[in-house]
Structure formats: structure tokens, C-alpha cells
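Fold this sequence, please.
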Amino acid sequence: MQLILHKDTVYEPVESQFYTGHQPVKIVKGEPALSWKGGKISIEEWNKILSFFKWSYDTTKSETQVRLLYHPEQNNWKAWAFPQERGTGMTAKEVDGEEKDKQREMFEGYIVNGTVHHHCSSTAFQSGTDKDNEQSQDGLHITIGKMDSAMYDIHGRVCRSDSMYDCVYKQWFEYPEEWDGVIPERYISHAVSDILVTPPDDQSFPDQWKDNLIEVKRPVATPYWRGNGNQMYNRYGATSHTKTTPVVGGFSQNNQKQEDLIPVEYTDAEKEDAAMQVMKEWVSTYGDELKTDAAQIPDLWDSILLHEYTKELSELVTEYGIEEIEFEQYADKLQEKILEKDLEEDNKTSGYDPYEAQVQAHYGGYGHYGV
């Protein structure tokens, strides 16, 4: 039956003794649901994922991800962390290529039927980037959060034909059979989710997953001053989001030629997700101490841009416990010494005679005895 939409009304085909064509469909408001009837993921397999996430978070403080593979004939699940970039911050990105294809061949008969990734120490939720990535991938998608806590956080959803549905964990994960006779059915999914956020005692996972975290040299944005010194630009202009490595003498600091640097562009969704997560963590960590909330973060813009240039000064103040008034006195004293040295250099190059200058000043510039 082919349904059609016309002027916000859904129609269905009709064929009767007197009519042929379409008639409106009687629609009842409700929430769509989708149930999984296939095999379930074992807790043993799931614990490999949690163990890998914990290790990767402690090691890199960056997101990582795992693919969920399903064998339709065997009703069996496998988890695998394919080659991906290491140290990416609040994003996860697989590295396509020969090695990834080779590892995919290990799972003959399996289809990709979901993903799992973590949000570091942030809470678990589906970000805009997550939704964009998952929308075209049917299956189970899970985010784990609060990797630095005693109990993790979890958010699950199911995608089918570009639509998202709530995840009912008991449909996707194994749990003790005796629960069905002891725990009310409506509470079983919650009990399963408690298992899914509990750090496992056995922190083991395939060694290959460690090797699959690949260090990718990405150009890093470094702003610089130009013009009258009152405006800061990146290397591609004030409005560019392109990131490059600072260039010294025609070569970048990592010995790449400037023309070899590839600009890295981020989508608006990626920038927004990263900003929201990092700002949230910053406010949570320092907001009370600095009496600052999210609305006041833009006031720190100049300080943020200058961070790379003031890092050594900040370390100096911290190391020696220098107070603000002392800091100002030292700076003034240094400036005086610089000016004295500059004046001395000017005198050397111009043949300046201090005694002659005093005489000239005293007699008005007409010589020792005037006219």
C-alpha cells in the first residue's frame, strides 16, 4: 500500500464499487516504537568495551569508539575498535584504509549493526554530530559518559530507516533468566542499564585495540599579531577556521613545508558540540572558584587567544608565588633597563657626547660662550 502526503494530510489508496483513488488515513497520535528480536549482546563482550574506554580515557583524555558487529545467522555479537585517530579530544574518527579493511575481513558474515563511543568525563547524550553520524547507520548506538566516575553514565538509541527510537536495553543485552520471575518487567531494562554502567572488575580487552589508536599529526592553529598590534589573526585571516602549524623561517615547527600543510575544517555541528562539552566541563570545574557562569565565558576571549603566549608567564607566577604588585614592579624595572640599553645603543651609533649635550642645553645651542 502506497501512502501519499498532500497538504499535511496522509492518504491511502481506495478501491471500491463506486470509487477509486485515495482517502485520508485516520491517524492516532502516539510515540513510535521499534523492538529488537535478534540475539543479545553478552555482558562479557560489553565489558571489553568499557575496559577499552576506561584505558583510552585515562591514557589520552579523548573520545574513542567501538563498532558493534552482528551475525544474522548465528545471532552472535562482536565488538571491535577499528583503527582510529588518537588524542582527538571531544570527537572520535576512524582511519579508513588497508589496515581497517584487513581487520574488517576477520568478521566474515557479520554486519555492522551499531556503535558505542564515550564522552570522556562529560555526561552521556546524543550530540548533534552523533545524530548526523548515526542517522544513516541502522542499529544500536550508545554513548557512555562520566568515565572518571565510580559509575558511568549511558544514553542509548536505535536507528532504523533514518528514524531514531528509544533503546530498551533488555531487548539488546543478556541478563539473568531468573530476573523474569523476580523483577517486574517494567524494571528490567533499568536493572540492565545499571549493569552497563558498572566498571568491570576484569579490565581486559584485545591488545589490537590499543595498537589501533593511531597518532595522526594534525596542524594546530596558532594566532599571531599583525598590523598595529591590536588585532589577532590566524594564519588564514581573522574569519578563517583553518588550522595550521606556526611557520618559522618558511618551515613549520614540525619540519613540514608550509605548502604541505592541509587545512582542517570542522562543521558547524562539530564546533558547537565541542564548545558545549568543553565549556560545560570548564564551568563545572572552575565556575564556583572564579564566580563565573557560562554567560560570562565570552569575557575571557582575549585571555584565551593569548594563552599560548602567556603560558611561561603563568608558570613563573605560580612557581615563585609572585603577587600582582610585584609582577608590575618587575615589569616596570625591566622596561627601564630596556630603554636605558636602547638609549646607550643610540648614543654609540650617533656619536652622542653627554657633556656636549649639557653645554648645548645650557647655552641655548649657540656654543660654549654664545655670540
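Confidence is low (pLDDT under 50) at residues 221-263, 365-371. The longest strand covers residues 111-118.
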